[in-house]
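Appendix B: complex inputs.
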Amino acid sequence: MASFELLTPATVDAAIATLRAIEPARRVVLAGGTDLLLDIDDGRAAPSQVISLRRLPWRTLDWVEGSLTVGSTLALRSLEKEPEVARRYPALAQAVRAVGSVALRHSATLGGNLARAAPASDLIPVLLVLDAEVELVGPTGSRSLSVDRFLVASRRTAIAPDELIRAIRFPEPRPSAYLWQRVRRVHDISQLAIAVAWSPDRKTWRVAVGGIPPRSVLLPEVAAALGGERPGSSELHTARARASRAVALVADRRASEEYRRQLVGVLLERAVRSALGGGAAG
Amino acid sequence: MSRPIELRLNGRPATIPDVPDDERLLDTLRWRLDLKGTKEGCRTGGCGACTVLVDGRSILACLALTREVEGTAVTTIEGSASDPDLARVRAAFEKVGALQCGYCTPGFVMTLGGLLKEIGRSAPIDQFLRGLDGNLCRCTGYASIVRAVAEMREPGP
Ligand SMILES: Cc1cc2nc3c(=O)[nH]c(=O)nc-3n(C[C@@H](O)[C@@H](O)[C@H](O)COP(=O)(O)OP(=O)(O)OC[C@H]3O[C@@H](n4cnc5c(N)ncnc54)[C@H](O)[C@@H]3O)c2cc1C
Ligand code: FES
Ligand code: FES
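Resulting structure:
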């Protein structure tokens, strides 16, 4: 006997109705399955119903006036293969390429990564600095909120039990970069990661740190220290100093606190240079 | 629940009876269809031994529900002789001798065959080698596999 029943609603309305019909504790949503099936194997999830999003029309990538909307169930590999993504949102392309392997990225989705809200996610720091918006759809219609507000804590988000992530929207294209440090280049979790982006509209930097619990966070005071579009060495120096004090850097089995404190400044400076130079980082 | 599933398997239409909703593609292939060429290594997405093609794209069969690939075209190493890209990779592995125990080989062949379909024969070698990031081999030390990749490529213009 199967341990769960797989439901494959054919429309968004049917999917929402299915969510509403089943008690939240008994069901779970399936996109690429690369996190969920492991959770089921480990007993972290024990649903009696699994609701697949496979038939929903969300494997999309749309450009509207030069800005990007990614459907929640689009495979990461499809995102990475779109040349305009790497050109307009370099940090996003760099972060996507950091996730697992090609075969994993043929299944794994952006919506699943965001919904999971893992502290070590490679995509979330980038969503933060690009001011990405999450589009949620539920029984009463849809709503949007910033990724920063969507993330509540480690593995906790602001999604309601009967809502789904429909898409992730990126406002203006931004010079940006994502850099990470790992013991091994692949199949490892970053000891620390930094995303930076320059917003031409707001004339400000965004800086986010990832790879540390409880969640990836924006560092506005570090971004402010960078000043204008082309920070000089004194701005970089101040930003580095602030970065190493800004977050509660912890020691765990991946890195010591001291190493992380060193790393945060080094990656920050390299990321800013990469964003400005359009450098081939990552 | 268990229901029959229709798909294309190694180039032919197939109906698989009684597939439980929670069954992984890896288990359907190995235990229900007796296609033992697809290997189980880690069962957690980390080794690439279970790689198969779904509509020409490589996926990890240990992290896929069989019912989720309903209606698609699934190709395993058993179908590699009749697919020109996979046959090309196989020929390169055989010529170079890019294996020892062979446990990882189906996964490498499927991953590289999928890459040939995605990026073409004359893509830069780095794209193929980085594309192998998810495939582990504990025997060869990879040098012979890298030679097979070079053999399989067509030098660019
Ligand atoms: C071997 C391996 C290596 C990995 N390496 C990395 C890495 O380097 N960096 C990294 O960041 N991640 C990594 N991951 C995790 C990464 O694969 C996932 O986070 C992936 O992006 C999740 O997407 P999915 O479609 O597979 O989600 P699923 O597993 O299908 O779902 C994940 C969670 O999100 C929920 N969900 C999914 N879609 C929606 C939606 N549209 N609306 C509401 N809820 C939804 C599900 O209910 C579930 O709780 C790795 C995983 C594996 C197995
Ligand atoms: S068995 Fe699937 S990746 Fe190892
Ligand atoms: S040849 Fe033995 S694992 Fe690769």
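The first strand of chain A starts at residue 5 and ends at 7.
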